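Ticket opened by: R.M.
Priority: normal
Category: complex prediction / small molecule

The reporter submitted a protein together with dihydropyrimidine-2,4(1H,3H)-dione and asked that the result be attached to this ticket for the collaborator who will pick it up next week. Submitted input follows.
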Amino acid sequence: DRFDVLIRGGTVATATEVFKADVGIKGEEIFAIGHDLGRGDREIDANGMLVLPGGVDPHVHIEQVSANGILNADSWESGTTAAAFGGTTTVIAFAAQHVGMSLARVVEDYSALARKGAIIDYCFHMILADPTEEALTLDLPKLIREGHSSIKLFMTYDRLRVSDESILDVLLVAKETGASVCFHAESSGMISWMSKHLLAAGFSQPVYHPLSHPRLAEADAIDRLVKLSALVDHPIIIFHVSTAEGAAIIRRARGDNLKIFGETCPQYLFMDAGDLQKPGLEAAKWMCSPPPRTVDDQEALWNALDRGDLQLVSSDHAPYRFDTGGKLRNGDKSNFKEIANGIPGIEARLPLLFDAMVSKGRLGLDKFVELTSTAPAKLFNLHPRKGSIAIGADADIVVWDAERRVTLTDETMHDRTGYTPYRGREVQGWPQIVLRRGKVIIQDGERHDEPGSGRFVTRSRMPESTGWLASHVAQHMASLK
Ligand code: DUC
Ligand code: ZN
Ligand code: ZN
Ligand code: ZN
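Result attached by the on-call engineer:
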């Protein structure tokens, strides 16, 4: 056989197996996996290297306008370039509605930006901040059926949060159209109440930010979501779980056969609240929400990943520059409430996780592939096209050097934030060559494709499910004596 690209001599890893094999690519897809496959028009020597499915990062903010009107630091070109340099070949970003905007228009506008700038494949979660009758009955079902099959809802932030009743409304639409719903799970009242008291007492620096997002607020919100999900009988995904209690609530719910899924992020596995002890506003570079917690929480989250209580480790890349257009929008006297929440991480995610999981031996290579690629692809209906090295899958592949040591610095990152909260950390293991749908897009530290070469991926949906109310009523009547 003659291939367009043949990757020779590497060690292929999937979420279930690790084996030596060559990988033959025709066009954009993986055509053969095995030995003595023939020749390739282009051959890549992967001797001594790992051959991994490209990372799937299902939670990134790119070229997004926050509800406070701050445009984040990355364009689709810079954000997806950074992703690719870090071994990620598919992202799910946000099409973020603000109050008063048409959801359909929002999706159109964000799609246009991605179409122009992306160098890797992408799709969107729709952030619904204004669940009007029109959005719920017209826009949302239509957009979901067009392939935008996931939604993110917020329980906190004044301009974004929706009521319990609206959460139920959205869960029902999602159930009836086969979409998934993701949540920012923190209870708003506790956060504003703590913030009010901290600021009034003069505790206004970023180091107090973690205190303003009490861990109880996360536990309370997750607990409530479990119940809202159970009432509608529709699965939910809890984003960025930061606490041991949060993970424990999800574990219990799953034990009760409820369909609750959970994500954590590198910032909760590798950072703690002590990282915000920096002079002046420097600590703003470590500020995200939920905030990093404690070393004990890190351990609990690793254990939750190990046991499968949590299934995802996304970057939650939310890049704000350290200047008046970003974190310091309210000047260099800003209190923690005035500083945008979010940190960059789209490029460092795979290297940080590989170093911890494979190089340092925690959880291993198959679990690394599962968490960084296969599980997000499956949970968000991108599998089998994305998320595995398998015949017929898109040839999104990373040739990974498991030995190479790199020290992360502000300068080594390709996004436009200008800093990384992981600076100074040395990691072992680094992506050497990255292919997106059969094309080499990263090699020798250079990017080899143009903005706009990334493509929108349509996703399948869960089965549509109707008759919800009738079945509740029938169950109730049958239970009556
Ligand atoms: N929530 C996110 O999901 N990302 C960035 C900031 C935030 O609060
Ligand atoms: Zn969030
Ligand atoms: Zn986020
Ligand atoms: Zn598979």
